Amino acid sequence: MTVSGVGVSPGIGHGPVYVLTVSVPEPPEGATYQGEADQEKAKARAALERVAGELEARGVKAGGEAKDVLGAQALMARDPGLAIGVDALIERGTAAARAVYESFATYRELLVAAGGYLGQRVADLDDVRDRTIAVLTGQPLPGVPTVAAEPYVLVARDLAPADTVLLRKDVVAAFVTEEGGPTSHTAILARAMGVPAVVAARGATRLRPGVRVLVDGGAGTVTVEPSEQQVAEALRVSRIRERALDAAAGPGRTADGHPVPLLANIGGPGDVKAALDSGAEGVGLYRTEFLFLDRTGAPTREEQRDAYRAVLEAFPHGKVVVRTLDAGADKPLAFLPPPSQEPNPALGERGLRMFRAFPDVMAAQLQALSDAAEGISGRLQVMAPMVSTVEEAAWFAHECATMGIESSGVMIEVPAAALRSKDLAAVVDFFSIGTNDLAQYTFAADRQVGGLSALQDPWQPALLDLIAAAVGEHGVPCGVCGEAAADPALACVLVGMGVATLSMAAPALPAVRAGLAGHSLAQCRTAAAAARGQVTAVEARNAARAHLPGLAELGL
After folding, report:
1. Closest among 474, 466, 464, 537 to 496, alpha carbons compared
2. pLDDT tens profile 318-357
3. Is residue 459 part of a domain?
4. Among 24, 187, 237, 318, which residue is least crowded by beta carbons within 10 Å?
């Protein structure tokens, strides 16, 4: 028996299943309290602050991305709007625990309705709620074993970041969750820890506790009661892969020396160390929206300048490609409300469209970027998200030039931009293809809906055709910063199609470096042509791999 999901952190893990069940019950509806309202309010505020403090302390202890993730959760507990809602319910006689539950329910509905990145943060919100209710009612929170006789496979409906950061690779062999997606905090932390992980695995929590499973975090599969031979073969391939990755070093290039700079996708200065440790030659996607999330007002120009400069200083000999604020749709900001109610936010005012609607926010970010680059040897490149037309591209390039930014480009995420790349090339300095959104808009398939994952497969031939159209023969360098770049086979195909640089999550860099080093540019071109000649994603992948024999030899 095999349970399938979405692989979000590559690697092989096997061991007995430990099923995590959340058991903090919902406080009874209509629950009231004895005593004064002010005392009950103080009780609720103290519980929220205790939870916020504990989350921050865990984040500081864990460091890295965990610090940022748990810091964002602490902000949820300290949200002024939440406190106002809790106080109002208590004034009407509702007990503190029930008031907290109902106030969080309002926020939960908003996140679920938003979907996308924010929708995947529901688990974070639920965890803060449950921790607060547990404090108020004197219940222990269910946790995960931090010591075990052998590494176990942790299975859960979803997994809270606060629990994830306590785990170690020598204790947890793999994560499997029924919910979540590639951008959920569980996925982000699993990748940072280097632990194999599969999310969106329906039915996983029905696995019998203690049953042995084999998890493939690359393929997204969970094999129940594997044979000794299956485990041995998986581990053999994994060891070959690890040796290949350890041997891969230096700048990205093909076997015959064709250079392919390998860059990292980051969300801020806290991600720099992991990028450097993985051999990143620069940054191909700096997601600046993470500076703006969970705030009631925009970060100051000085705050932004310092965050950008820290990354530029870390790569004095490489380039840092910064994406300007990508707000709207699945990343709404409290201080940048959409101009109108949108029936379909993904097709509404987001990305550059939202940026243009708030010129003060735009001007502050571009000036902060220009200030950050002053006197720095690293090369700053600034690109706009969600560009559809030449007019939009030309406007953005002009605004960048006005602020003293020397290199401006655009994201290719909309089919119209890919199809008219030659026209766009006349007004900007570079392109970067966001394969996640490009697939979403090409196939009319929400990138966060697990049931449509087949249409999000970057091996879809139609998507490969659009990438080829974007690369074109216009002479403007074109990189890829979507998740497609993290697949060693697809990385070879992209290079064969003429893609100049590849950017990905830091842990994926060694595998891509090894895959490219094992093949010549001619092999990559042949593989690309073979893939584009197929009619299904599966056929495209198989056809490409048939011309990339080094991948199997490397265990990739």
Report:
1. 464
2. 999 999 998 765 556 666 766 556 666 677 777 888 888 8
3. yes
4. 237
Please indicate, yes or no, whether residues 165 and 299 belong to a single structural domain of this protein: no
Q: Print the domain residue range for 181.
A: 2-22+148-219
* CATH number reported for the structural domain that contains residue 214 in this entry: 3.50.30.10
Calculate Rg over the CA atoms of the chain.
24
144 token code pair: 């995960």
Please state the domain count of the chain: 3
pLDDT at 163 over 80: no
pTM assigned to the model: 0.72
Contacts of 160 (CB under 8 A, 6+ apart): 123, 124, 126, 127
Residues ≥6 apart with Cβ < 8 Å to 547: 523, 526, 527, 530
Q: Do 160 and 124 touch, CB atoms closer than 8 A?
A: yes
Contacts of 422 (CB under 8 A, 6+ apart): 472, 474
- Nearest-angstrom CA–CA distance, 516 and 519: 6
250-308: pLDDT as tens digits: 899 999 999 999 999 998 898 898 899 889 999 999 999 888 876 778 889 999 999 99
CA angle 361, 363, 369 (to 5 degrees): 105
User: Which CATH number fits the domain that encloses residue 370?
Assistant: 3.20.20.60
**Residues 131, 332: Cα–Cα separation, whole Å:** 26
Domain CATH number, residue 130: 1.10.274.10
Own/partner contacts of 418-424, CB < 8 Å, gap of 24 or more, are: 418/466, 418/467, 418/469, 418/470, 419/466, 419/469, 420/389, 420/390, 421/469, 421/470, 421/471, 421/472, 421/474, 421/476, 421/478, 422/472, 422/474, 423/390, 424/387, 424/390, 424/393, 424/476
Average pLDDT for residues 455-475, to the nearest whole number? Answer: 93
Supply the DSSP string of 32-76, one letter for each residue. B-SS-HHHHHHHHHHHHHHHHHHHHHHHHHH-HHHHHHHHHHHHH
Dihedral over alpha carbons 383, 388, 389, 393 (to 10 degrees): -10
- Same domain? 207 vs 304: no
For 165-213, the three-class secondary structure string (H helix, E strand, C coil) is CCCCCCCEEEEEECCCCCCCHHHHHHHHHCCCEEECCCCHHHCCCCCEE
How crowded is residue 194: how many other Cβ atoms within 10 Å of its Cβ? 13
In a domain, 234, yes or no: no
Q: 87 and 172: one domain?
A: no
Secondary-structure breakdown of the chain: helix, strand, coil percentages, each rounded to the nearest 5 = 50, 15, 35
Amino acid at site 303: E
Residue 62: CA count within 13 A, CB half-sphere: 26
In a domain, 27, yes or no: no
Query: For position 212, what pLDDT does the model report?
Result: 96
